[in-house]
Amino acid sequence: MVCGFLRTILGSAPDIEVVDEAHDGAAGVEAVRRSRPDVILMDLRMPGMDGLTAIERINELADPPHIVVLTTFDADQYVLRALRAGATGFLVKSTPPEELIGLVRAAAQGHTVLSPSAARRLVAASTDSLSARDRARELVASLTEREAQVLAGLGEGLSNAQIAARLYLSEATIKGYVSRTLDKLGCVNRTQAGLLAHDAGITGA
């Protein structure tokens, strides 16, 4: 029933096509291989393989899509674990339909999308983990000064164009820095890198 509702809502947008659906984690991974979507809306609690495991498996694929968690559970541990697993966003199922369409568009462009409650929980949880902070600081120490500046921008949710304007560099140059920074940090997307920046206590200028 939920899938049918989402298909109707998203299908009403002229620039969005629902290409596949699955009802458990393992089937979801196969659906990604089969249909190669740009964005996935992923539940966390499903039969068999759960959503967190599915997120990890999907991010092991070549050129993985953006994954947005859409669930009824927004407890601290779920938000943080989903983003660390490689999700680019976390929304609750009570998100209004008209907002959901815009958030899917934003996710397709690589932006982090968080429901207000998830954002509050993320800030509280990410500032309360000593081991995460220590690990993040060790990773950041491997970056050059410019890469660290770019990471700070990612931590603020800035686009490549906004980071370029801040650092007086071209957008193409920033794109290269973002790619190298993600590789060095072992992050699969900008959201993971931004989370790591918060853990490390990095802020922009």
TrEMBL record:
Top-level lineage group: Bacteria
Response regulatory domain location: 1-108
Single GO molecular function: DNA binding
4-aspartylphosphate modification, residue list: 43
Record flagged with keyword DNA-binding: yes
Keyword check for Phosphoprotein: yes
GO aspect biological process, one term: phosphorelay signal transduction system
InterPro entries the UniProt entry points to: CheY-like_superfamily (IPR011006), NreC/VraR/RcsB-like_REC (IPR058245), Sig_transdc_resp-reg_C-effctor (IPR016032), Sig_transdc_resp-reg_receiver (IPR001789), Tscrpt_reg_LuxR_C (IPR000792), WalR-like (IPR039420)
Domain spans labelled HTH luxR-type: 136-201
Stored CDD domains: LuxR_C_like, REC_NarL-like
Protein keywords: DNA-binding, Phosphoprotein, Transcription, Transcription regulation
SMART domains with a match to the protein in the record: HTH_LUXR, REC
PANTHER family linked: TRANSCRIPTIONAL REGULATORY PROTEIN NARL-RELATED, TWO-COMPONENT RESPONSE REGULATOR
Name of the protein in question: LuxR family transcriptional regulator
Organism: Streptomyces yokosukanensis
Lineage of producing organism: Bacteria, Bacillati, Actinomycetota, Actinomycetes, Kitasatosporales
